[in-house]
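Reviewer comment 2.1 asked that we show a complete input and output for one of the modelled complexes. We chose the S-adenosylmethionine case, as it is the one discussed in the main text.
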Amino acid sequence: MSPTLPSVAPASDFDDVYRRAGAPLYGVEPVPELRSLLESGLVAAPGRVLDLGCGDGRNALYVARRGFEVEAVDTAASAIARLQAAAQRENLAIAARVDDVRTLSYPPGRYGLIVANTILDHLERSADDWLVPLITRALAPGGVLFASVFTTRDPGCTGVGRPSATARFVRHYYEPGELARLFAGLTVVRYVEQHLVDKAHGRPHRHQIARLTARKPPERRRRRLSLGRQESR
Ligand SMILES: C[S@@+](CC[C@H](N)C(=O)[O-])C[C@H]1O[C@@H](n2cnc3c(N)ncnc32)[C@H](O)[C@@H]1O
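Response of the prediction step:
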């Protein structure tokens, strides 16, 4: 069972970290795996994208530059303000707002892509029970989820090595394989657990991260299945 850490800082304190950073906290480049996903053509514009816990928007900005309409939410007001300013400068279709991913409405079938890059691990472990079905339902048929979480092998969990300066906000480190199992209703396109060196913020530190790209079955297949059922009656 994954540990739920008792001494975590409240998510609201993250705002301070963004404000003090004075520049994009995680840099301006999107997560490389997200870039590869879009370059692969599996998700193609036009389409609606939801970025959960978007931070100051490195991923939302990248996705919007590729022609998607992006909704981006985060509880950190300073991060959202930075993202809004960047979107305005480039005239990008990004609706960024301060909001809590735990209380969002998730309209069914709305999004071609949902990005959840190190946000689920910033929520209570129990949030997965109801958030996973909501995220899955909010994907359009054929839509793709891109999610990353820190694992129990991350220095923030093991205590071995230098943890990230923002490790105090992580509430739930995922067991190896746990993220893929949670989204078992989707078809896995790619699942990796990888080691990375993060030089984007604070002193260079290591992470152990799980990344999932998974797709909701396209409508066509479902229709064929239900036709098959009728024919066999
Ligand atoms: C590790 S950062 C990742 C930021 C962004 N996804 C990225 O990859 O650059 C985690 C983010 O989750 C946000 N966050 C934490 N709890 C949240 C919640 N309940 N609702 C929305 N955002 C939240 C934090 O403010 C922070 O920006």
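The mean pLDDT is 90. We note this here for comparison with the apo prediction described in Section 3.2.
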